[in-house]
Amino acid sequence: MGVFTNILRIAISAFFISTFATACSNGQCKLLDECSSDGDCEAGLYCFSCAMEFSGSRCVRSTATDQFKLLNNSLPYNKYAYLTTHNAFAIDGEPSHAGVPRITFNNQEDTITQQLNNGVRALMLDTYDFEDDIWLCHSAEGKCHHITAFEPALDTLKEIEAFLAANPSEIVTLILEDYVKTPNGLTNVFTAAGLMKYWFPVSKMPRNGNDWPLVSDMVANNQRLVVFTSRKSKQQSEGIAYQWDYMVENQCKKSFLSAFSFYYLPCLKREGVDFNVQQLYHSVESRFLSNFHINILIFLDGQGGMKEGECPNRGESSPLNDKTKSLVLVNYFGTIPIKQVTCEQNSGDLINMLKTCYAAAGNRWANFAAVDFYKRSGGGGTFQVVDTLNGELLCGCDDVHACVAIWVIRSLQAFIMGMIYSIHQD
Ligand SMILES: *[C@@H]1O[C@H](CO)[C@@H](O)[C@H](O)[C@H]1NC(C)=O
Q: Is the domain of 57 the same as that of 77?
């Protein structure tokens, strides 16, 4: 065999390897096609591997549908669903701003600006008094520590201000787990960030289960920032809405097996477990990378904080079926934020929980679906889930895109009926 044939064979096999390894590239790959980089995938998708759902890397969704642009914004604020990030500020790779390395867990990977640009419309933020300022922090017992501090709230609020300024038809909702005791502490930081001009006033929020103002009116009035606090007193003192006067919320459950209770930290955190547990989490996550993780996952599935078929209310919230509250918030991040598991949770599990909570809420679909690592999924993930919620809320279909077709058919019907009517008149 000559050199030439060898080169030919190498060339031929290289050709086949390259054609079969990725059947698509250059922005041509569709949902769940194999990919090797984000650039291979169509707009709105990115290249991701979710070992629990598929092998290798595939294109999955990275952006939400804008329901206001797809349909219209002429319905009340409570008739739409909004993708919500739990602990939106607890971002992987966020540099330390408190002077010492952080020892705590992360719940997201994108910056606040990226989250908003990808269609997240509600952010859960934990606010604390810290360093004579207001900070976003993961902590316990209402006290922020240097090792659990993420960043001054001002930085995050400025990102939100920039988004609202650049997107004059969008509404952003903030749900604050609020430990700030400084009088007017929040008002001062919202003012400094330039956000007061977007403030949606408490006086316009319904407290008897009525509909909220229309999104189109909120946009026209430029009242596009809706803020809720977990501190009741601030409704009086600072005009910041007390969350559970307007919203029902489900609770994640913790395991009854204390040996494994550290898996349920986000639940426990709220009940004041100290940060040693959070350190433990780091060793847990690295163990998840090893082979025996499957056993633990099976355990989690059976005993999880997000127990299938149950949707109890969070302690501070009235029962989910209390219809004097017009908004429904469903949390789905009951286990500790373990990246490798989230992509499965954000896929089928999440929609099942939303169906359970729909029934628990007296046949009401969630307005807010709150998740960790919102972009991790086995395909449509949280974005498809919010499409489903908006479809159900807006036209009783399981995808908001179907509402467009229904709307076109109804308009056509109305047009034809109008024609027939005018022919009769003639
Ligand atoms: C806006 O969309 C909703 C949901 O499809 C529909 O019911 C409503 O009639 C639409 N309103 C206008 C003004 O087009």
A: no
